[in-house]
What we know:
Elements: E1 5-8, E2 11-14, H1 16-19, E3 28-37, E4 47-56
Antiparallel strand pairs: 1-2, 3-4
Amino acid sequence: MRYNKYCINGFLFVSKENEENKISQNSKISMNCTRTFRSSAKDKSPIDEHMTYYGVI
Length: 57
């Protein structure tokens, strides 16, 4: 099953396909996230990297 709109935690996300023929578009998102890097499973000093993701649904 596929949806054109998603409502998650009070935020509305709209797919690019749903907005192709519309005047105003709002299908792009940005979100802040944290990635954790480890050199191995035994690494006791992981490094967190904060980054912003920009993309299209």
